[in-house]
Predict the structure.
Amino acid sequence: MEARLGSCLVLLAGLLWSASAPALETDQFYAWGKPIEDSTAYLNAWVQIQVQSALDARSAAPPADCESAIEVVQKRLQHSIYQPIELWILSSHLVDRIPRGEEADRDYRAHYLLSKTFPLDYARLLQPSPTLQVNGIRLGSDKLAHFFSEGWWYYKRWRRHHAGETAEEMQRSMFDYGVKLEQWIQGMKMTGVFSPADLEANYQGLIFYRQLCHGEEPLLYRQDNRWHFSGRFDFRDYVSPEWDESWNANIYSPTRWKNIRKTMAAYCPLLHSDWVSRQRAHYAALDTQTPTEKLIRELVAAGEIPDPRNFEITAVCGDWQTE
Amino acid sequence: MGLLSLQAHAGNAPPSATPQTAEQSRALERVREELTDLETRWYGLMRIRWQDTQMFSAGLGAMRVKQPRNSNCSIGCAIQGWHFEVEPGLYGIQAGVGWGKLIGETGRTRRLMHTVHFGWNVRGVVLRTWGDSSLYPQAQTLAGIEASVSIIRLNISAGLLRSLYSGPGEEYGDDWVVTAGFGWGF
């Protein structure tokens, strides 16, 4: 009987570990040329409502200090496996996205970048994230999950280790932590995908959690013995073209890349279309070298990861045109 | 965006006024409305599993949830509520009532949660066994609690049940029985 119970617990632990591991994958190429309404206002409103209602729920015994208030906020925004914001996006009628609806979702699952794989592919058991738009930038809803979830992991780590570290050392240490997640349980080892765009979202999540209590004008403040969330929160302050995986290329494992390259090549005829050219020109105008990009380049130079530029659509289409 | 000052803001004073635009107000109103306009719904659930007392069984269940009226679970949503299930099997039948939470999708069925990505429940159960059940006596009634977790469609469950049997040979049977099962569904 004990052996039976023990086997169950081992199996359960294995399943829990594996389920908490992968973030959902996404595909912004699939949404190329298809109109999506901007959802910035709704997403900001959702965050505003969730944070304020979490704080209000504690109004009888308000958190003693700002760090305790962050813990209250985090429990509302970040869960262990699926993130509340992503679940809301999937079921909301307010947030425009591609795909939207059952038929469109079936088509997406049949054609998104990871669709052509082997039958028992672990990554395909998970729902691929839809693409939405924030401030003119396309992103997978998984990036918002990264923002609140891995951003929180970064923040906890920062809180434990920041004393005695310079800003650059701290940035490096967060980046190394994020890279390990992407190389192991959240990326390469589980799904064969290493996503620099995920790392960008993680890092912006850290900035968000830090802004709650730190800086000149923290987002959380106390008034009349109650905690409030500043109306200044705005996703536009965090989202950049680096969150769009059709712009900021992923790195794929060789097995995964064989199929993805074929799927990606199907978008080559669109690469110079009006819509895509306009979008990429818009991104180019906004793009700057982020701290994450700089550190990715360092890893590439050290030979620790393949160069993401080899997986860019422009590289694929260059190959495709000369074949 | 660069790094912020490491210094915590001691006073947590109110920030400078940030007037809301009409668009922000409208968005807040619509999101609040979506989140608070709730209705009661029932979702169908099912599972098939191997369990040491019933052997193979198929469960049919339902979950009663309060959910935003506009919420659509065809692609995915989170629900929580009271869970009812009847599960006939090769060597017994089990009925249970409890509370559960899950993230799943209904697809075009609208109300049948056919794919459960992650979920758990804890239920009070009554189990009636027969045939070649592993218990002694083989035909008896047990009651207790069962917990189950589903992850990416796979389900694993464990229960602790007390035998309600009293009759000839009861001293040879176990008063308490631990059950374990695994299968597919919720």
Q: What stands out?
A: The mean pLDDT of chain B is 89. The longest strand of chain B covers residues 115-129. The first helix of chain B runs from residue 22 to 36.
